[in-house]
Write a structure and sequence with these properties.
The chain is mainly alpha-helical. It is about 90% helix and about 0% strand.
Length: about 80
Amino acid sequence: MSDERLSDLVSERLSLNWEAFREAHPGLAGAMERVGLVEQIVDDLKTDAGYREAMAQAELDERTLAAAAEVLKHVDVVVSRALGL
């Protein structure tokens, strides 16, 4: 995942939780600079073993899905040929 996409994802997820954080820590939330927080979280994720493992698995899953799609494409060709389409 590109750094830009990861930053966008972190920002989206942060937004989902920001209101609860702000209610729990109003002073801290008011003093925090969100762009810097996003950058810090992105940096933390890049070195997080669980995140890295999940991304490696996602890459494998993506390859598996692409291979399955290729198989289905070939099956469709043969089925179409058998039906004279």
